[in-house]
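Same chain as my last thread, 112 residues:
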Amino acid sequence: MDCLFCAIIEGTIPSKKAYEDDKMLAFYDINPQAPVHILVIPKKHIASVDEVNSENSDIIAAIFEKIPEIAKTAGITNGYRVVSNCGDDACQTVKHLHFHILGGKPLAGEMA
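reply #2:
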């Protein structure tokens, strides 16, 4: 499998880690769209939100339980946005499920 995020998980591509455990890795985006921009990815390869199911939803729940702690540790104190792009029309560029944590300043109100 030729997956950028799987290579980051394996350590063959370096990243600036924000958090890691047995289910997930959180690291700083190399092209930040906000003062704080962290990507949170499951260690198990799941291509997108479309592949979340009863067999892997526990991983997604664990990610969402950890996101507030990751944001707080990164210094986000006044709110943040969590985004996941799904598919080509949504501009999902890496076909490995990931959640963007964006914060550190007031964000635009429009999402499109």
